[in-house]
Amino acid sequence: xxxxxxxxxxxxxxxxxxxxxxxxxxxxxxxxxxxxxxxxxxxxxxxxxxxxxxxxxxxxxxxxxxxxxxxxxxxxxxxxxxxxxxxxxxxxxxxxxxxxxxxxxxxxxxxxxxxxxxxx
Length: 120
Fold this sequence. Notes:
There is one protein chain. The chain is an all-alpha fold. The protein has helices at residues 2-19, 29-40, 47-54, 70-79, 84-90, 93-96, 103-118. The chain has two domains: 2-40, no CATH class; 47-118, RNA Polymerase II, Rpb4 subunit (Growth Hormone, Chain: A, Up-down Bundle). Helices cover 62% and strands 0% of the residues. The chain is elongated.
């Protein structure tokens, strides 16, 4: 997810700053632009929140407990659809692979994600 990439690039940027007196000499324009992009489009800003999305406490993660493929997990985590219709439009396979008995299960998953975002 974008938020995970942002955390990784931030850590790398900090490491580069510690190595050199002039941190800009250690980073390329591509690195800078990539960092700016993922920060801008990250739905979750706090590292603990990112961890919660992947590792929801006391049971499997909000997204992976629904047996989502990595691609599906990333799309839903990055775009944070608000309705079942949006989620199915973005990731049609969540409905077609038979992992969800009905739309209520998808609604619950989206609700759990929105709660995490709300309390960030």
